[in-house]
Amino acid sequence: MSAQSENFSSAIDPVKLDKLAEVAIKVGLQLQPGQDLVMTAPSQALPLVRRIAAHAYKAGAGLVTPILSDEGVTLARYENANAESFDRAAGWLYEGMAKAYGENAARLAIAGDNPMMLSGQDPDKVARANRAQSNAYKPALEKIVSFDINWNIVAYPSLAWAKLVFPNDTDEVAVKKLADAIFAASRVDNDDPIGAWREHNANLRKRTDWLNSHSFSALHYSGPGTDLTIGLADEHEWAGGAATAKNGIVCNANIPTEEVFTTPHAYRVEGTVVSTKPLSHNGTLIDDIQVRFEGGRIVEARASKGEAVLNKVLDTDEGSRRLGEVALVPHSSPISKSGLLFYNTLFDENAACHIALGQCYAKCFVNGTKLTQDEIAARGGNKSLIHIDWMIGSDKIDIDGIKPDGTRVPVFRKGEWA
């Protein structure tokens, strides 16, 4: 697969790819001298892996450890492994990653897998493998969602992903178009990407400061098919853009990002909502999602495509039918304006307001980095093996903030900040 990627490396602007690597280290992670880095990536992304490693060592990294996945190896399992294989995961690997994070290693993930890689595989095997991996990954994931360390996700334009987004183009043109879209969304298509991120982070901070100043108890969404009230967790705090991890390092966890987000109350969500963009999940496109909440829990769920997969996701555990995140993104965001469906949540979630099923983020509470898991739960934070974002925003959605005394304040009108 890496050879396949190299075949189309000429379609990817090497200067912008190097800028993306530099932004990942200097903005995404703000990697510190002597700090180790654990990096996960698909094998197709080796050109970016190598550039990131170079910039990490220039920044004084202690040790960079890449962990590569490969589509061919993954498919070999689904096509040849015995049934018991799908209830297993490499727990020893995730325990090692958790140990590294416990010793203050930074984490960087490169997104670039074929979004439809598992589309032809047995959904039951996919669900079992995901459940096993989620259980095994818990020790490492807890360090990430609790924001113990500085972490970051960036993207690389693999051929299979590019052909999904641009099916009518030649392989080389598709890769070039996806690369250019990634570079634009990641703000590396200019002379000063780091300065561009500094300005963008300041704008996101203004939004979070305004939201935090109002201390809303709930948000009410209204639009076609949607009449939803999302109660916000007690002592919640809005976040967006750069944030400080428990280890004291300021980082941008997602590149790109256009969202400001916080933690909903797991037991205070009522009403109906429909998706406004398809959700690509483990090789299945789930479209036209319609759900109804009672007491914070999804009690009805339908979809025009991928409904069986959606229901398997919802049955992962007790927390998978409750919300762990609510995020606000204007309809005029650069990713929305691109008009592209990326089939990748890192990008698609930044095109529209969204909610996430499952695990909440500890950092979205006042003094969240000091709270225990029990204290987070007492404030309404959700716990789950999953965290899956799906889009509910459009140019037809209005959002009101509701204060504890019932006062309503316009937050969004027709998909834009009010």
Give your account of this protein's structure.
The protein is α+β, with helices and mostly antiparallel strands. 35% of the residues lie in helices and 24% in strands. It is built from 13 helices and 20 strands. It has helices at residues 2-7, 14-29, 46-58, 71-80, 91-102, 123-145, 159-165, 171-185, 193-214, 307-314, 334-337, 345-348, 373-378, and strands at residues 37-42, 64-69, 106-111, 151-155, 218-223, 226-232, 243-244, 250-251, 260-262, 264-274, 279-281, 284-286, 290-294, 297-302, 323-328, 354-358, 387-391, 398-402, 408-413, 416-417. The strands form five sheets. It has an eight-stranded antiparallel β-sheet with strand order 14-13-10-6-5-18-19-20. Strands 2-1-3-4 form a four-stranded parallel β-sheet, sandwiched between helices. A hairpin with a 5-residue loop joins strand 18 and strand 19. Helix 2 (14-29) packs across helix 3 (46-58), helix 5 (91-102) runs parallel beside helix 6 (123-145) and helix 7 (159-165) crosses helix 8 (171-185). It is globular, with a radius of gyration of 20 Å. The N and C termini lie far apart (47 Å). Residues 1-6 have low confidence and may be disordered.
